[in-house]
Design goal:
The protein is α/β, with parallel strands linked by helices. The chain folds into two domains: 32 residues; 235 residues, Alpha/Beta hydrolase fold, catalytic domain (Rossmann fold, 3-Layer(aba) Sandwich). Helix content is 38%, strand content 20%. The chain contains eight helices and eight strands, in the order αβαβββαβαβααβαβα. The protein has an eight-stranded mixed beta sheet with strand order 3-2-4-1-5-6-7-8, sandwiched between helices. Helix 7 links the parallel strand 7 and strand 8. The longest helix is centred in the first third of the chain and has 31 residues. The chain starts with a helix and ends with a helix. One of its GO terms (molecular function) is hydrolase activity. Pfam families: DUF915 (PF06028). InterPro entries: AB_hydrolase_fold, DUF915_hydro-like. This is Alpha/beta fold hydrolase.
Amino acid sequence: MKSKKRLLIGLALMLTIALLFFITKNKQSTASYEINKTPTLFIHGYTGTERSFKGMISRFENKEDGAKRILTCYASKAEVMCQPNGKTNVEKPLIQVIFNESDLSVEATSQVFAQVMNTLKTEYEIENVNIVAHSMGGLVSAKYIEDYAGLPKVKKLVTIGTPFHGIRKYDFHQRFGQANAPDLYENSMATKDLLSDRQSFDSHIKVLAIAGKLSKHGGDGLVTVRSATGIKDIIKDENYSEKIIKDERSSHSGLHEHEEVDKYVSEFVWQASK
């Protein structure tokens, strides 16, 4: 009887030690991934993948002093999983966000993005971020800004080829085939609602809109310059700037691979006065 009691006490002691070890290790792990500098998030567009911003992030890591990807966050309606990519105590932390379901509506994707931001706040104590977004990623980012308070605040927003006034149906289907994305069409309710809700857009956010202009198109081959700079309608003049890239490499999918875009993003996010 006594030996059985000793065995139970021994097992309880071992479980207690194991639990204390787990708690201590978890605290050390969280501390090692504490992020002190404002990170820059990269948000892809409709049907985008990890490859969408892979090139730009790699170029910044190679050419921009202090720039390093620290997290890659994979997100869906069901869960958010952020994978550390190394040390976080870098001067210019980069975070890539990848939507596993990349063909959802703007509203649904913004809800998933809010889950990402909640994870960044609760697990990494991030309070402020910058965002670089391509195409529909810019609509999702703006929707997040308008609809969600109490999560990490956006300090600077860069939109690249974002269709704030939508895309002509013909041009959309030329690019995406039979896919159906009514939020991205011209005069959609999604874009109208976004641009009519100026009061909900944080007036302190600095915005840079980047558009492409091909010689034989009113824009980047998919999004017109007018549409790509449409966010100006809800931004204070002193907080808004835009850049138009005019060459044959400034196509919609070519913009985030363009060295001139890299230059404007770098200057705006890290070199401009805060």
